[in-house]
Amino acid sequence: MGPNVTVCIPAYRSEAFIHNTLRSVLTQTYSDFVVEIAVEPPAEEILSACEPFLWDDRVRIIVNPQVLGWADNMQSLLRRVATPYFLILPHDDLLEPDYIATLLAELIRHPHASVAYSDMVCFGHASFYWPLRLTEEPIFDRLMSFFLGGMEAVPMRGLVRSSVRGDFPTDRYDGFVAECEWALHLLISGAAVHVPRPLYLKRIFGPDRMTASGQRIIGRSREYLLEALEDHRTRVLALIRKADLPKAMRATVELAAEAAMLRRHMTFNMGAFLPLQLARAEHIMANADAMPGRYGKGIQAMSRLAMSQHTLIEGDKKTALDLVMAAVDSDPYQWEGLAHLSRLLLDTDRSIEALDAARQAWTVAPHANGLRELIADCKSNIEQRPFREIMQGGQAATLAERFDAAAYLIDNPDVAAAGVDPWRHYCEFGWHERRKFLVLSTKG
Q1: What's the CA gap between 34 and 182, in Å, rounded?
Q2: Which of 38, 214, 293, 327 qualifies as a cystine partner to 304, CB 3.0-4.6 A?
């Protein structure tokens, strides 16, 4: 008998870390698998990094004659899968040792499922926990939980039954969020079994490294990104139609998808909405308002959050605050809405309320992206308020002897690089910008 699982690794300029990825695969407690690595040119350094693992005859390397792009490379890998199960593993991520064994057991236990996936832990430049708990059945609720969960591609990083494989999505925009379309395809094909353990580790790079996902967005014109998002929207709506839902259910799912598209526009920092998107937002709100139950509230919450972010970009902080408060009222378990509310409250110097909202977000989604830093900012703002009040009262001289100039320069390297006197900078700019006033340690 042949192997049972194929691990598909698309590789491009990953010589600095692919050895860690391979090590995490080859130390799995389950061993009946093969590893297919599709290397994009230039290949020499990646091949050198993989060489220590080629003693294991389960590892196979294919070098593409030319750069295909990540989505087309992924499609070529999936077309070669000849095992009953497979998984997609980006070249920089890691697996816990029992990842395959645990997820395979779930797929065997649930023959109706298309994919089994786990929670993720993100590491590297940023560290946070990323769960996505989707409803398994029926398909209507499964799709609604996917879109109201932000249309995130967490299930893409699961173990998949090859009978539902199909082609990996490609487009003319370098695979712009093709992974989300792939996740949607899997959810339409069958249930997604969730394992509430962090078995998958996703590497997060800092701004000094351009990733494959970053290349699809960073440096692109706004017009290009808007076109890509519109194309993505069209493809997602076409996939929903393939689900063959009753008309009323399909309309509800489409409404949730439209709200998720507005969210995606904002998470990609694509600026204020265009008139077409504002019209869609009005349509979403009008229809969701008439929809009974939690799904209508969830759609309202996601749309209001996106509109709050839009009005903030437009400079209307009051309306932005009103909208996000309405979003939180619609769905108090939407942690992103609570986090956005906290930031707006922090920006209006309502630090105690901001801390309360941030803590509520943490209760809903512990260790979620940015929450630890947000709570720290709220606490710092509360601590710094007395100093700002002194500065506002024109009593800067009472603080001068307590100011820790050396620590201020360490915490603010831009001030140090400019060669500006730290106390002068704090008086003229720092306290307005809410930079920390650091008190000198007591000398013994």
Answers
A1: 22
A2: 327
What amino acid is encoded at 12 in this protein? Y
Name which of 271, 261, 268 is nearest 231 in CA terms.
261
CA-closest candidate to residue 369, choices 150, 193, 127: 127
Give mean pLDDT, residues 313-333.
96
Peptide bond into 42 cis (omega under 30): yes
Number of residues that this document lists for the chain: 444
Nearest by Cα to 257 from 317, 341, 183: 183
Tell me if 156 sits within 8 A of 192, measured CB to CB: no
CA distance 324 to 313: 14
CA dihedral 217, 368, 278, 135 (to 10 degrees): 100
pTM assigned to the model = 0.90
Other Cβ atoms closer than 10 A to 70: 25
C-alpha span between 24 and 164 (Å, rounded): 26
Contacts of 311 (CB under 8 A, 6+ apart): 319, 320, 323
What was the pLDDT predicted at 444?
40
d(C-alpha 373, C-alpha 371), whole Å: 5
Helix axes 247-267, 222-242, angle to 10 degrees: 160
Give the per-residue pLDDT at 293: 82
Q: What is the DSSP string of 332-365?
A: TT-HHHHHHHHHHHHHTT-HHHHHHHHHHHHHHS
What's the helix, strand, coil split of the chain in %, to 5? Answer: 55, 15, 35
Max distance between CA atoms of the chain, in angstroms, equals 82
Q: Write down the pLDDT at residue 432.
A: 86
Whether residue 218 has pLDDT greater than 90 = no
Long-range CB pairs of 351-358 (<8 Å, 24+ gap) are 351/378, 351/381, 351/382, 351/385, 352/382, 354/378, 354/381, 355/379, 355/382, 357/328
Torsion 186-190-195-199 (CA) sign: negative
Distance CA 412, CA 408 (A): 6
Q: How far apart are CA 21 and CA 94, in angstroms?
A: 5
CA distances from 27 to 123, 326, 389 (A): 20, 49, 58
Q: Is the pLDDT of residue 324 over 90?
A: yes
| Pairwise CA distance, residues 207 & 209, whole Å | 5
Q: Mean per-residue pLDDT for 222-227?
A: 93
444 in helix, strand or coil?
coil
Q: What is the pLDDT of residue 392?
A: 86
